[in-house]
Structure formats: C-alpha cells, structure tokens
Amino acid sequence: MKVYAVLGDPIEHSLSPVMHNAAFREMGLDATYHAFRVGIHRLRDAILGADAMGFGGLNLTIPLKEGAMAVVEPDETAEAIGAVNTVSFRGGIRGHNTDGIGASLALRRYGVSLRGSHILLIGAGGAARAIAYQLSKEGAEIVVTNRTPERGQALAEDLGLEFRPFVEIEDLVRCSDILINATSVGMRDGDPRLFDGSILRSEQVVFDIIYSRETELLRDARWAGAKAIDGVMMLVYQGAAALEIWTGLEAPVDLMEAAVRAALEERREN
Ligand code: ATR
C-alpha cells in the first residue's frame, strides 16, 4: 500500500484526504492519503522521513510551500513560482507546483478565456504567485495589487507584471475583465470586504480561490449578475494534477469534485 499525505499547519480542515481517497478508490489503487500537522521547523524532517518510508507523494499547504524550496529539487514551474505544493519521490525528491494550472483549468471549466483578458489579481502570497505565473504564461494581461506594497511589487517584478497600490483597488476593479481574490479575506465570517461590491458589472468574471464558504465577494458578484466562480474547482484540478504527477494516470476529476462538494455540504450542516 502506498501512503500519501498533505502537510501543513493548521491542517484539520483540509479536504485533500477526502478528495484523494475517493480518487484512489475509483482508480482501484492500493493507496491511502492522510493529513499531518507539520510546522515549518520540522518540514525537512517530515519530507526526508516520508521519502525514507517509501511514501508515494506529498502535498504541502500553508505555511510550508515557500520553505520547501530549500528541501526539494524544484521543477521549472516550482522554481519560477518560488513555491512547492506537490512533492514526488521517483528519481529524487522533486518539488512541483500545480496551483497555477489548477486555477487556469478552473477558469476554463467555466468558459473563461484568458488570452488578452485584463485580470486584476489581489494578493501576493504563494497562491497569488502560482496564479500570476500560469495565467500570464497563457497570455492574460495581469495587474497585481496587494495590501503590503513591497510583497506585491516583488511578485510583479519577479514575473514582469504591473503592480498598482491597494488604495486604487476600486478603479482597478472597474478596469478589469476578470477579478481574482487570492487573499485570505473572506475565509472567516465577518471578514471586511476588500472593496465596495456594488461597483461590479455583469460582464465581469469574479474568481475567489476560497472554497470553504460562500464569500461576500462572490455574493456581490452574483448580485451584480457577474460570473462568480468559487475555489472548489481549483482545489480539485490542483489535486488532479498532483495525482497525475504521482501515478502517471488520469485523475477522476468529476468524482473528486463530488467528494469535495459532499464534504463541504456535510460541514455546513454540522
Ligand atoms: P497564501 O500562501 O495562501 O497565498 P499568504 O502567503 O498568507 O497565503 O498570503 C495571504 C494574502 O492575503 C496576502 O496577499 C495578504 O496581504 P499582505 O501581503 O499584505 O499580508 C492578503 N491579506 C490577508 N489579510 C488581508 C486583509 N485584511 N486585507 C488585504 N489583504 C489581506
């Protein structure tokens, strides 16, 4: 039996075990997937230990994605992004990043075309970096804004994008075709809005990478008649891409989506 795991802190709310175990069952693989709470100071031990014990692969989440760069051998994508969300152990300890492709496939699934589109990307953490890298590679025109300007400027500079100060957010929203929230704002009930949602228009696409609840931003987008996309499909597609790296097999995307949606539904009821 192959063992897989997601490492992070906090980790108890991760839906990756539910999603991947459903996929393993469907694919008929003798494999199991667990979540382990690991902080940044034990990351090296955990990755080397997983390798020593013959694990099939790992996913990494907050706060480990950037720190893992020093432990693994990053592939070209992880290197360009500066963060790792997937580790494989075949032929060395390799680091990959499937967050960007996850976001891109999620947008495509909802019929959004990226080439030449004007995207406002809010945020400059690991998720924002992966999204910016992938969507700009696919020909989108991306403007980055972030509460802490230094962090946003560093992202924009690394990837050759434009940075605009956070105080301009409403003008930036008005000028964009696609708005992406890659911040953690909206994750908790009662989080303040990033901007006044009444300025959204029906021709716009609003993609919020948060999947655990319906955010105020997505509610505002629906109210405006805009296309509102939550983070579920990004979670599913980044997981599917990781599964394909580990096994070389096509992942059962629809079943993984159903497993995630069922788990979310169950959580909402409790
Ligand atoms: P991840 O790796 O998941 O992207 P992260 O590195 O913690 O997570 O990044 C979180 C993002 O949310 C950052 O862009 C952060 O802005 P700062 O760089 O200014 O910290 C953004 N963020 C968090 N709380 C915010 C708030 N209240 N208003 C605006 N942006 C916020």
Task: Describe this protein's structure.
- The structure is a single chain.
- The protein has 270 residues and is α/β, with parallel strands linked by helices.
- The chain has two domains: 2-97, Leucine Dehydrogenase, chain A, domain 1 (Rossmann fold, 3-Layer(aba) Sandwich); 101-231, 3-Layer(aba) Sandwich (Rossmann fold).
- The chain is built from ten helices and twelve strands.
- It has helices at 16-27, 43-52, 76-81, 99-109, 126-137, 149-159, 169-174, 216-223, 232-247, 253-269; strands at residues 2-8, 31-37, 57-60, 73-74, 86-88, 94-96, 118-122, 141-145, 162-163, 178-181, 205-208, 227-229.
- The protein has a six-stranded mixed sheet, with helices on both faces.
- Helix 1 (16-27) links the parallel strand 1 and strand 2 (31-37).
- The longest helix has 17 residues, at 253-269.
- It is globular, with a radius of gyration of 18 Å.
- The model has no long low-confidence stretch (mean pLDDT 97).
